Task: structure prediction
Amino acid sequence: MSTRAPARAATPADDDLHPPATDDPFWTETAWFAFAVPERRLTGFVYPVFRANQRICSSGVYLWDDTGETDLDCLYAHNYWHIPLPDSLTSMRLPSGLSYDVLEPLRSYRVRYDSHDLRVDLTYDGLVEPVLTPRADHLDQPCRVQGEIVLLGERIEVDGFEFRDKSWSVRSDHSLVLPDDVAHGSYMYGVTAETAFLARTTGADPDRDQVRRGGWLLRDGVTSPLVEGTRRAEREPGRPPTRVVVEGRDELGRTFTATGDTVNHFAFRSTPAMSPWVSGVQWTIDGVPAWGENQEWSLTGRARRARPPASPSRSPDA
Result:
């Protein structure tokens, strides 16, 4: 059994902007809230990125199903860059139309977005307290998500389970200096009303890798860190996975197997240095149906060699 020290518990201060720990211009904070309508193969999230030392932020809102895979052909994608940094996230109003309200610290949140084509009004109620990573610079929380989205006048009810997460650390836009646990890897989770898992990997092989620190298992109301596990993925070459299998064991000795089939895919630029594929996933966790996501990211801003010019064709008479 692992003897590492547990991460500190989340506090209400973690709902707000964190004071930058450095004067690095790439000190970055995020506040991601996902939502889904599984029966329509529909996934979405709001994803602002805050750069406190630059006094600016962005405001990304994305919605997709299995009919489109990029911001050029998905259901909705709009990212406002370089808008003023808000004073607080506990009652945030951005000029993009995105707003957050903390209804109960660490437990309940209201997320709204209002644009010409898309309106979002959702409440997130945590199933358990947020779980901090060992470095205490990132938290994850499985939630019951209820409310509605209105897309081009069509009202779509949202009532299910999803995740939110929040991070605060230096996240450089210079891809060459990003650490391995930021530069490439995968992040996947599944959640029901009673159980959830979160797993992370980093490694050169995206289809067979070991689960690293920061993942956990929720079962019977108890959340415990993962101490070991594996991830296997099946895919067509150059594509996001069609199936993902995660096996793990937590510090309490509890084991789980999660098998997931992806139902949609979306590629976007999360920051200038990173481009994730995000897929909605229909999981079974030890045979119990669940919903969640599989995310895989890689660096942008790195060149690869151009194809050499074709050799001149030779005339039959040459």
The radius of gyration is 20 Å. The chain has a mean pLDDT of 92.
